[in-house]
Amino acid sequence: MPGASPALLQLTTPGKSSTLCVMITGLFRIIVYGLIAYLIYLIYRFFRAINQGSKQRRITKQPSGIMVKDETCNTYLPKEDAIRIQYKGKDYYFCSQECKQKFLSSHES
Known about the structure:
By secondary structure, the protein is an alpha+beta fold.
């Protein structure tokens, strides 16, 4: 082929052309298989999320282990279960609204 570029001559040479074609085809297959695997993974995650969303998750609070004293009835209870108020810059904890009201009424007078 007179006047043909060297790159074109390399592609049309019988030995190198078939090797290059096989390499490109193999690379293309790897890319296609990778995309198919990724799509299968996305579909799996989608259905797994739907399945987990239908189940109700039970969220339990971990107890802190800190006990506080109710100033009205002198009962100790977990800090996360207590009713907290700030009175004159100090935190007070109560076991019920009734104890809280008794405390506030006794300290307001």
